Records
---
Amino acid sequence: MSSRSRREYIETQRARYRRGTRKQKGWILDEGCRMFGVHRKSLIRAFGGRGQRGPRRRGRPRHYGAELLRPLKVISRLTRSPIAASRWRARSFGP
């Protein structure tokens, strides 16, 4: 089965799956497992309708946004903190 036909099948079954009862959802999942040879959980994700994922950011994730990072850098400079301004993203406040 081609990826295009697989995608079309999932699009058509997504509506049936969402409005179906628990028993009907089980039948739909069983049918998909037989057709594609995949686990039920992967079909549940496909029927969930999240769509395509966006591109992932590479590197270390940011803990603070730009609106909070600037004031933190200023505070770091004014207090002559031993923590480098670029290290603020790795720190958190509180216990």
---
Amino acid sequence: MAQAAVDIPLWGIIAKAAQQPLWQLLGGGRAADIPVYNTNAGWLNLSIAQLQDEALRLLDQGYSAPKMKVGLADVNEDYRRMSAVRRASPRPGPGRTCAPRATAQRAGRGPPLPRA
């Protein structure tokens, strides 16, 4: 414990002498962005137009994907909604897609969702 009282301030002194933030001095920088997705999107009560608008807004905010909810009574309607959002994306490609998330309605029931 007593060592920390000396050790921690010394790291601050070393960083100041190097004129770098400590996180950078210790190698904490990253070479690439970390993809993130938004889980508060794609609600079952939204229309396809609303889903598309929401997905585009999230992509513009820097999210790599909206995580859409699935679990309507008709699995084909889930597929149609996800396909429409994927088609609306101006930046398709790796890391920019829609991730289905099973709701309690769908969990353990019915066939697996088709892949787009």
